[in-house]
User: Which sequence fits this backbone?
């Protein structure tokens, strides 16, 4: 029996949700006055409220750029632990006329009232999203083996640099990206970095996700323009990502979580420079740059 | 009767809360590995969980740098509309041994269960804090008259530039400041910008706040390193601040709120450059710089 016929004989019982594709315009032109009193037009990021209804029950309103509202919704539900798998969801329907997304689950979400009422514990870039209980769960996470190669890190930083983006035209957004090896798999911007990482989580959950570790090089690497807070590190680990790279720095609890879960955390990554904050044994220095004039 | 004796005869019925002063260390030294494989020590911002109990009922856990936990707690309660005035609070007691702050109110908070359960509507830098209902309230806000002078704006940007800060030593924090005229009244950094602005709101609520408009120049101006999201603009307006200045940009809803409430919103403020996004009629160009070589 060939592999093909085996696949035909026993197809995986995949039940993907039906999704709309309701991407919205990402920027808006506005008139500004500068220090000379001169008027000009600039782009600013769009920002729209999106109220999430789960089985007709209002759950939350997210402020979002609106690039990928369906993936955002799925990722939000996953990262809030309201669903364990996207297969629990029958459909996600976004309607920008009423700024709403309607989620239909196959079998309902148990104790949704109780589980959303508990949402008083917050973190991150302020009074962020759910945190309570997540720290308890990270000890259950087993991250993949493999290393982050310096050459891979540089390829990732360079790919981000070349990316045309809302940030470049309008600023004031956070960007996240998921890399497979050195290949950019998904680039997401949003007014909130929690939204950006939730969108990546939602997208990833829809992939047939065979791990594709190439030799010892990690398959999945997460990049963010934002700080590595505890929540960003936890959400990365929940996606099975064992290395994160940030243009910015790390916070104390982000570091604690990265150390605890065995995640390689790299920050201050610009051009050839970076700082590895956690688990440097997972970093292979295969592309050490020539010493700079300032260094001996 | 002199003004003094009048004051003695009718003292204002001020009942200020009792506060601990439990500031915590703001940075931590950690060892990092750089692109040359060299180890060095850097500072990262401390980040600690602070669980807020109101009348012995657990309300929320904030992730904070911990510089001014009492003001943060008061500002959080104010900005979440759980109290209308700090005078409703008898005491705020922070205990870092258990990472808790105990708030004792004078007469309890009515319907606290119901009012905190509603907290599913979020904004800002992701899945932030309370937003629902706030838009309804902004139409009731009457901001002070007065203008933002360009010379005042430059004095503020320069004062921030000179400020020694956690950001300079450790990065990865947001800073906010409240200026009275051109004088720095309070500078606050936190891992979250919501926390920083809440801390300022808490501090301001404890001041005997006579408006001190000097001529036509605005007395209170708010500065932030972060983006001007709707929530930052709303919180500023709630403090009676009619002008905000950001090193960063503005989002679409931040702009909408600023326009609606009549707040002068300035972004991209570095050195002499800035962009006024909303209500430029409140900006007086009294310090136009000489044309740069790039400009005619």
Assistant:
């Amino acid at each position: 029996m060939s592999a093909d016929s085996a696949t035909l004989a026993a197809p995986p019982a995949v039940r993907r949700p039906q999704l709309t594709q309701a991407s919205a315009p990402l920027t808006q032109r506005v008139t500004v006055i500068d220090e000379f009193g001169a008027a000009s037009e600039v782009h600013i990021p769009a920002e729209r409220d999106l109220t999430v209804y789960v089985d007709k029950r209002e759950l939350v309103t997210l402020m979002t750029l609106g690039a990928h509202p369906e993936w955002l919704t799925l990722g939000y539900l996953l990262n809030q632990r309201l669903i364990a798998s996207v297969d629990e969801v029958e459909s996600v329907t976004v309607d920008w006329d009423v700024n709403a997304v309607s989620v239909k689950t196959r079998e309902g979400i148990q104790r949704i009232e109780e589980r959303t009422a508990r949402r008083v514990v917050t973190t991150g870039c302020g009074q962020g999203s759910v945190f309570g209980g997540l720290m308890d769960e990270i000890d259950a996470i087993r991250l993949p083996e493999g290393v982050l190669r310096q050459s891979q890190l540089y390829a990732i930083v360079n790919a981000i640099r070349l990316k045309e983006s809302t940030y470049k035209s309008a600023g004031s957004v956070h960007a996240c990206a998921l890399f497979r090896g050195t290949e950019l798999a998904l680039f997401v911007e949003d007014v909130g970095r929690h939204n950006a990482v939730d969108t990546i989580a939602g997208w990833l959950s829809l992939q047939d996700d065979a791990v594709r570790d190439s030799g010892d090089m990690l398959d999945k690497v997460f990049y963010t323009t934002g700080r590595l807070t505890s929540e960003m590190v936890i959400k990365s680990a929940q996606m099975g990502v064992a290395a994160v790279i940030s243009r910015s720095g790390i916070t104390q609890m982000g570091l604690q979580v990265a150390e605890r879960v065995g995640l390689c955390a790299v920050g201050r990554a610009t051009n050839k420079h970076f700082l590895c904050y956690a688990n440097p044994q997972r970093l292979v220095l295969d592309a050490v740059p020539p010493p700079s004039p300032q260094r001996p």
Q: What stands out?
A: Residues 1-7, 118-132 of chain A have pLDDT under 50 and may be disordered.
